[in-house]
Amino acid sequence: MEFEGVIVKGETVLDDVRKERALLVGVERPGMRWSLESTLDELARLVDTAGAEVITRTTQKLSSLNPKTFVGSGKAEEIAQMCRAYSIDVVVFDDELTPSQQSNLEKTVDKSVKVIDRTALILDIFALHATTKEGRLQVRLAQNQYLLPRLRGMWAHLASNRMGGGVGSRFGEGESQLEVDRRMVRKRIAAIKAELDKLSQVRSVQREERYNSEIFNVSLAGYTNAGKSSLLNALTDAGVLSYDKLFATLDSTTRRYILDSGRAITLTDTVGFIQKLPTTLVNAFQSTLDEISGSNLILHVIDSSSPEFADQIVAVEEVLGQINAQGIARINVFNKCDLLPEDELESLKRRFPQALFISTLTGYGLDDLKKRIADAASASETLMEVLIPYNHGDLVSVAHEKCRVVSERYQEEGTSLTLFVGASLQSRFQPYEQ
What we know:
six-stranded mixed sheet
């Protein structure tokens, strides 16, 4: 059997545990920034990360979406035929479906076939990979927010069941159950938010302590699978999970890092971004993403080997804008340079003269990155020479705890210090400046 606009994967040897067989559906519309092929390739990687196997994909060009089935009615019937022909378990749409579109598509395909969209797939992956209590709560919040408007479709079968009790009676039962479930989901959302607020307060206190300690905070941001976790491991031996899969790590990880000058800073690895990142996820992971918006410097890690790296940069910048982090100083760090031919690497360097180029696998460029981080950290400090009277010995303690002391001498009038001072502490030392 042949279908228009379809790519079919060859037969594969199944594992002992059979993977779910997936059909991908993409729609090409006017004004799309990403090519349909590249966005479906990414969707295929997401499906692989979720543990399913992409068997085939189908596409359609549309000037406007069908409000009932997203794709055209003929394409919807074709998808149902493909599900039967290729024994499909799950149909994955590359765009978010409305609750009614999802319900109508589920009625078109066989009952045994699930119909989900990109958002549901990402939520499934997040649920699979969240490990901390906060991460799991954030995923549960996003799942319930996604579920709430879709409850009606789950009870739609009651509206059509009119046996025995007359036209309106069975529908009334469905509505009652629907309202019960809505209240239950709303209560669940409220409870999760309350728990997250408590955890967020703890995180805020920890973050405030880091800020007050004058420790320079560096966040690693970037498209998923760009190599943020690998970079954190390369710099700090953090031992963070690092796989060649999308969203391999979700929970933010902060590690202490000592610069060559002896100054301590922090490096924080955060959840990766992706095109069409659902707003519900951005909102649910707000407390985690606050780690980025509260940092002194952002390392924007970019996969230099990806053909779509330019579009990925734009996608990351959009999310940084959503969390009000666009004004923070940043360094573009092109990773995986070991995968590029020399001429392509040189061309990339000419195109992005202010960026850094590294390979966490070989160590290429890491020394330059360390120096750039140290320069950025030093730029936030002012070199001061002060004479602290002995009756203000507490300020000497502050100097050692929160500043970078270059030299210290004991004189008759007090303690003479040469030190680098962060902006928030300069006013305390200025009265004693020499």
